[in-house]
Design brief:
Blueprint: E1 3-9, H1 12-25, E2 31-35, H2 46-58, E3 62-67, H3 70-82, E4 90-92, H4 97-109, H5 114-122, H6 124-127, E5 134-137, E6 147-150, E7 164-165, E8 170-176, H7 185-198, E9 202-204, E10 207-208, H8 212-216, E11 225-231, H9 235-247
Helix pairs in contact: 1-4, 2-3, 4-5, 7-9
Length: 253
């Protein structure tokens, strides 16, 4: 892969846990950890950061670095100051440590370049909690201003798996979640990677299906029905692919 991930943490167990999580969802991305002080205790080490950067860049064209706390950030900045050539290939991002690492790794797995991976990591805080969409509807009965209602109220839901048409270039279908834990980390990553490869805009319950964090934020569970929608050329194929993945239960059903 062209972009590697370096995790700088005060705790080796924290860094190793996040690395394990990202490896599950982005198996081809190079991930290196620089965690703990020189004795392995809580803290950070300039030497370990330098070694992790060298190891990451040995297997990738560039690297994105996430640090858990302020002093870890300072340690990374020191490493970049010592070797200015690193700044051409390394970016230290300001992002939540876990969510940012997941977003960066999945985006790198999808083949994005350095700028795209950086943007995904920095956008992680917003991606994990999408805001609900509201529309104004006329109130009935007593006089008063229009009231806000969610866009899902009054929506006609087709039978599971049956495609339906909205706009001229839109295709949607309802599918039932079959795996016990819903679209948790691994299934969400499978869907996100598949959608990214298609290049077709797809949503699941309004969440961007190419974003693993957006899918995870839905909090889906077994037995829940979700609407998969795609737009544009190839929408039929995209909806069929995503509904097929969900119906298959990701090997967990």
């Amino acid at each position: 892969m062209s972009v590697a991930l370096v995790l700088v943490s005060h705790s080796t167990r924290l860094a190793d846990g996040v690395a394990e999580l990202t490896a599950e969802m982005a198996p081809d991305v190079v991930v290196r950890c620089a965690a703990g002080d020189v004795d392995g205790g809580l803290g950070t080490s300039l030497e370990r950061v330098q070694e992790a950067l060298d190891a990451a860049l040995a297997g990738a064209a560039s690297a994105v670095v996430l640090a858990d706390l302020g002093s870890a950030v300072l340690t990374v900045e020191s490493a970049l100051e010592i070797d200015p050539d690193l700044t051409r290939r390394v970016r230290l991002v300001s992002a939540p440590f876990v969510e940012g690492a997941v977003a960066a790794a999945v985006t790198a797995q999808q083949g994005a370049g350095l700028d795209g991976v950086v943007a995904a990591a920095e956008d992680a805080a917003r991606s994990i909690g999408p805001e609900p969409v509201y529309e104004l509807v006329e109130s009935s009965g007593a006089e008063g201003p229009p009231v806000a209602a969610t866009g899902t109220q009054g929506e006609v839901v087709p039978e599971p798996g049956a495609p339906s048409s909205g706009a001229a270039d839109e295709v949607s279908a309802v599918v039932e979640i079959r795996n016990p834990l819903g679209l948790h980390a691994r299934p969400a990553a499978v869907v996100a990677r598949s959608v990214a490869d298609l290049g077709v805009p797809v949503t699941v319950e309004g969440a961007d299906a190419a974003s693993v964090l957006a899918l995870m934020s839905l909090g889906t569970t077994a037995g829940q029905r979700v609407t998969v929608t795609a737009r544009g050329e190839g929408a039929d194929t995209a909806v069929a692919l995503v509904t097929g993945l969900i119906e298959g239960g990701f090997g967990e059903a």
